[in-house]
Fold:
Amino acid sequence: MVLLNANKTKKSQICNYQFVSMWLLRPFSALYGQLLDYRNWLYDRRVKLVFTPLQKTISVGNLTVGGTGKTPMIEYLVKKLLSGASEREQLEQHAGQLATLSRGYGRRSTGFRLASPTDTADTIGDEPLQLYQKFGHRLTVSVAERRAEGLQKLASQCPEIDVVLLDDAFQHRAVQPHLNILLTDYNRPFYRDHPFPEGRLRERRHGAKRADIIVVTKCADDLTFGEKQRIIDDITPYKVTQTPIFFSGLYYEKPKPFGNHPLVPTEKTTVVLVSGLANADSLETYVSRTFTLLQHHRYKDHYAYSRVDVDTLLLNLPAGAILLTTEKDWVKLNPLLTDKERATLPVYYLPVGVRFLDGEEAFLEHINAVVYPKNT
Structure:
């Protein structure tokens, strides 16, 4: 009884703290939102310069700080665009004509940069490196803090590129993309959130009116029609009437070893999970349901691992367990291991992809309308 009352008291204290914090931060949140409104007004009225790219550009972004699934969506689009033609057409018409452009968050370099075989997460960022290692010569991966400058240099150095996917560019108003895709996490939708510092919004909710498409991400496969309709009703006041809303979820492939470790993980396999994500909740849920999860080491988003981190993780890995991480973290952890360690240690990464619950064909029609305007 004493323990029960203590738990109730602790929960009550937490609720009171959150309530007080909310009211203390709300004036600053309102001020921040108004400043962003003014900034957007300047771009809307073209008082501030807006660059229109020569390339066909598709922006994937969000209103929230991190964690909505932008990189899996970029990968989805890359796969669809690369596989949109026959193999022969892909070689003759599409090789080198598709590019991605992102800020390259977490890199130590500056300015415009094209990914090359010698690049690392330090030089181009973890997510661009992930894309480069996955798609290689079929995709041009580039980074630049200033997207307008990046697009201009991309056009100058790679004139054959005619389609560019802009990663995390919804708030980058200096560029006017041909298609603006806004992502919102099912577990924390933008219409329930508030601008910084009270919440995690980068601007106020009505910024969603700039979206040409809205995708609710990280949905469960069994999301009901009634739940979808409720979400649509909640989003509708913040969007333009004709803007379509789609629903997608994440799917995880089988774990892949860093090297040639023979163990094939099963539901009985004990797992120590390592992640450096903005929001790792859905990942942890999946791993705990699929394997026997012993522990989850959560690092900050875009965390720069060191050899000391690797040694600590491996030293504390229980006998019979595997170390499992994300593909985004793999590109940073893998170079820290020796060839012998890759071949012998039970270290795996978990590829992730996007699947639409329904309406995928309609979604791709919007993409094709930008990429192949003559055929639509």
User: Anything to note?
Assistant: Residues 71 and 350 are 14 Å apart (CA to CA). Residues 1-11, 16-20, 90-96 have pLDDT under 50 and may be disordered. The chain is about 40% helix and 20% strand.
